[in-house]
């Protein structure tokens, strides 16, 4: 469903991705690991269409369509979801109002039945419960004044409601204590299905104890320099990245 | 002849027609109309008045009546009282007390010719329901009207007044509104202004707190061909409290010039101004918030905030706090900002499938939402919400860049 071929991308005219290849098929869970600054968030941002993240070479196809041709909202409508590394605070726009607008647009585009406000509220409350977020968060401004962990859980809550075909999770584990990590992992695992692809971007192996990936890739200096099965994550945990990158590990 | 001289000649001639040859027009004869370089008018061109609005009085009818936001409604049409239904405890007179704080030549002209509507709330009386004062005007040709509303709260009176101004066609509303409060009075005032874009408005709102009183004023307005909004607040008895909140939205080629002046002349009063502005397309807005703390007004606590959002590059907002403080022992916090929609917030919404235009609308509404949510009267909030939503959705050309 996701086919990335020799992808080159720049952020504010600075080349970051330098020939990246990755294929994700339905039902697969991929983990992308790599040291800070290697381009993991850049990849996630390029795929979801953020301004100033420009594809300069190669291609990224989602279900055969070039992502470069789609606006960010069209990518979401097509079934792509990015859980942000740094979820954005939007005071004055309530979480519920936000979910309503998002779901109306995405479900409408996908030809799914429309949820009336009662159904929406019920579904949203259920999703909150699954990520241990109090339903009162639905009334608050989007991420406004949420703690780091609450923001991450809010991302997962949105993801559960949006039912994406392909979910990209950017460092969803960072800043979470072990309980919150388990809650998030449970949410992600509940979405695992033969039709859905999941890409976990993470810095640490810790998350992968709870969400066991089918494939692990190491991203370094804008390229995938090694791929393997879940055992690669364990190896990275023991040895760090230095043996692959030839650099001293700083993290 | 310059436009300023023209306007003076026109208003004098009009005043003689309306008030009679025997009327005392000394004040009008003595005052000058603004020139292009007049500091207080530098952001408002009066060129539109060259169309001759001041030569004729508006006599048209609205295409449809305004909705009643209360059981109690006073209607002023083209400057003349046309109907009124008032609760017990509120009396209506047509003789105006002297109104302090009127300074612009337009207000002076209004003083010379207006047929005032004076609403007086009896002492120690609490009026539950708001009084909806509809100030309406219409004209197919350039013409004007001179509504004048005075709301007077006697000792211990409590009331809510919704001042709702509407105009259509080529009408210029040249208005004076005065809110006068005695000791222990509490007044909630709304000003709703969503006139048609082709109309003009020049008005002065005087808030004269003669007594230890509380005034809460909410001012919601869109721009039109010319909107000049002078607010002159006289906080003149120790212990008085004034809260003003407002939202102004200018889209397309519309214009709003807010000139707000709060004068603290006695010790220990509080005033708070919190205005939010939005400008899109080639809209232009001005906010000049003046706080004048006189010698002797120690213990004053005056605050001013004006945050603005530019929806695109062609729009313009000029905002300036102007502080004149002749006293050390005061608190005076002020802040004005002009910003743009945050591209990261917009991307976040779009990344959830929300189309760009809708994302902008949500963010713009979010920007003023806090203020909108704080409106204490449900009927007003019910009017304001769709009004603002419509303002924020309307006329935004497809794909306009942030
Ligand atoms: N908005 C930006 N402007 C300039 N440089 C950026 C921007 N975002 C990321 N970068 C740079 O791109 C490189 C990769 O960053 P990123 O993708 O965030 O790495 P990771 O997520 O793997 O830690 C870094 O050198 C970073 O400084
Ligand atoms: Mg990152």
UniProtKB/TrEMBL annotation, chain A:
Q: Could you name the domain of life of the organism this protein comes from?
A: Bacteria
Which GO terms of the molecular function aspect are on file? ATP binding; ATP hydrolysis activity
Q: What organism is the protein native to?
A: Alcanivorax nanhaiticus
Task: State the protein's name.
Answer: ABC transporter ATP-binding protein
Matching entries from SMART domains are given as: AAA
What are the alphabetically sorted keywords of the record? ATP-binding, Nucleotide-binding
| Family statement | Belongs to the ABC transporter superfamily. Ycf16 family.
- One Pfam family, short name: ABC_tran
The top of its lineage is: Bacteria, Pseudomonadati, Pseudomonadota, Gammaproteobacteria, Oceanospirillales
Identify the residues that the record assigns to the ABC transporter domain, covering every copy: 2-246
UniProtKB/TrEMBL annotation, chain B:
- Domain SUF system FeS cluster assembly SufBD core per the UniProt entry, residue ranges: 143-367
What GO terms describe the biological role, i.e. biological process, of this protein?
iron-sulfur cluster assembly
Q: Which InterPro entries match?
A: Fe-S_cluster_assembly_SufBD, SUF_FeS_clus_asmbl_SufBD_core, SUF_FeS_clus_asmbl_SufBD_sf, SUF_FeS_clus_asmbl_SufD
**Annotated Pfam families:** SUFBD_core
Specify the protein name.
ABC transporter permease
**Native source species:** Alcanivorax nanhaiticus
């Amino acid at each position: 469903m996701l086919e990335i071929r020799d992808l080159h991308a720049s952020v504010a005219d600075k080349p970051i991705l330098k020939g990246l290849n990755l294929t994700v098929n339905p039902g697969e869970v991929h983990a992308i690991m790599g040291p800070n600054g290697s381009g993991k968030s850049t990849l996630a941002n390029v795929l979801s269409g953020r301004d100033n993240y420009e594809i300069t070479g190669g291609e990224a196809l989602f279900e055969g369509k070039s992502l470069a041709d789609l606006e960010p909202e069209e990518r979401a409508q097509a079934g792509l979801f990015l859980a942000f590394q740094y979820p954005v605070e939007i005071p004055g726009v309530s979480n519920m109002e936000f979910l309503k607008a998002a779901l109306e647009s995405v479900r409408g585009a996908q030809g799914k039945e429309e949820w009336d406000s009662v159904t929406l509220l019920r579904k949203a409350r259920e999703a909150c419960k699954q990520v241990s977020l109090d339903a009162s968060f639905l009334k608050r401004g989007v991420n406004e004044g949420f703690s780091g962990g609450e923001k991450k859980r809010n991302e997962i809550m949105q993801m559960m409601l949006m039912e994406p075909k392909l979910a990209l999770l950017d460092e969803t584990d960072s800043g979470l204590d072990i309980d919150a990590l388990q809650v998030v992992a449970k949410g992600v695992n509940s979405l695992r299905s033969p039709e859905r692809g999941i890409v976990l971007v993470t810095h640490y192996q810790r998350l992968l104890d709870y969400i066991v990936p089918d494939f692990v890739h190491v991203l370094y200096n804008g390229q995938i320099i090694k791929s393997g099965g879940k055992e690669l994550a364990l190896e990275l945990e023991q040895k760090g990245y230095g043996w692959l990158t030839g650099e001293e590990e700083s993290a | 002849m310059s436009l300023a001289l023209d306007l003076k000649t026109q208003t004098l001639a009009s005043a003689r027609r309306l008030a009679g040859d025997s009327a005392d027009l000394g004040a009008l004869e003595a005052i000058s109309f603004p020139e292009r370089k007049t500091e207080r008018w530098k952001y408002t061109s009066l060129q539109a008045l060259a169309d001759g609005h001041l030569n004729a009085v508006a006599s048209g009818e609205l295409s449809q009546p305004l909705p009643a936001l209360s059981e109690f409604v006073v209607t002023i049409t083209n400057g003349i009282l046309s109907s009124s239904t008032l609760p017990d405890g509120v009396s209506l007179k047509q003789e105006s007390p002297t109104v302090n704080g009127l300074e612009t030549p337009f207000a002076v002209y209004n003083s010379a010719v207006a047929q005032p509507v004076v609403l007086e709330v009896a002492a120690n009386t609490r009026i539950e329901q708001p009084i909806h004062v509809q100030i309406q005007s219409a004209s197919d040709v350039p013409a004007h009207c001179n509504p004048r509303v005075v709301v007077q709260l006697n000792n211990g009176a409590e009331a809510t007044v919704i001042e709702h101004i509407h105009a259509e066609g080529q009408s210029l509303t040249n208005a004076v509104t005065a809110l006068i409060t005695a000791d222990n009075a509490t007044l909630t005032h709304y000003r709703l202004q969503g006139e048609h874009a082709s109309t003009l408005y020049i008005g002065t709102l005087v808030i004269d707190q003669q007594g230890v009183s509380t005034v809460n004023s909410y001012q919601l307005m869109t721009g039109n061909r010319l909107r000049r909004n002078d607010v002159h607040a006289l906080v003149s008895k120790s212990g008085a409290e004034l809260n003003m909140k407002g939202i102004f939205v200018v889209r397309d080629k519309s214009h709003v010039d807010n000139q707000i002046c709060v004068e603290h002349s006695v010790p220990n009063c509080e005033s708070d101004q919190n205005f939010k502005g939005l400008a899109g397309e080639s809209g232009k807005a001005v906010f000049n918030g003046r706080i004048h703390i006189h010698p002797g007004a120690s213990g004053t606590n005056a605050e001013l905030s004006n945050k603005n959002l530019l929806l695109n590059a062609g729009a313009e907002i000029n905002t300036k706090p102007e502080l004149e403080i002749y006293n050390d022992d005061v608190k005076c916090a002020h802040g004005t900002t002009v910003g743009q929609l945050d591209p990261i917030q917009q991307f976040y919404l779009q990344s959830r499938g929300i189309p760009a235009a809708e994302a902008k609308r949500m963010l713009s509404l979010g920007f003023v939402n806090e203020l909108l949510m704080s409106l204490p009267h449900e009927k007003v909030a019910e009017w304001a919400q769709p009004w603002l939503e419509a303002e924020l959705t309307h006329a935004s050309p497809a794909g306009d860049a942030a």
